[in-house]
Amino acid sequence: MNDGTVLAAGVVLWRRSPQGPDGIEICLVHRPEYDDWSHPKGKLKRGEDALGAALREVLEETGHRCVPGARLPSVRYIAGGRPKHVTYWAAEARSGSFAASREVDRIVWLPPAAARERLTQPRDRTLVDALLQALHTA
Length: 138
Description:
- The chain is α+β, with helices and mostly antiparallel strands.
- It has helices at 50-62, 112-118, 122-137, and strands spanning 6-16, 24-31, 36-38, 41-43, 64-79, 82-96, 106-110.
- It has a single domain (6-137), classed as Nucleoside Triphosphate Pyrophosphohydrolase.
- It is built from 3 helices and 7 strands, in the order ββββαβββαα.
- Helix 2 packs antiparallel against helix 3 (122-137).
- It starts with 5 loop residues before the first strand and ends with a helix.
């Protein structure tokens, strides 16, 4: 895309719930600059592929290593006056621990319904539904 579109990638990070074998929890990040809750994501670096960027961003923002799964729908929107295209994957958290930074000061692990409610942007809520669908068809 050479039309000025900003390319980014992210994941809907999930883990099996400590409360039981059937449930899952989704990780959301809080970005103090925007005071919003979202899925971990970020811009691609020069020469970086989308999946590599998604895995780098989730590690940088949440401190967690993950195993990528199904590709989820991409999201397009205008950010700072420019079109932005974010490619997403489902990703299961495997190891790591969070450390606050200037970019992300908090994370939360929530059941899907609570995560859907906490997300700031409606476009991010559809990714929760896509994750649940991908996990049930896997």
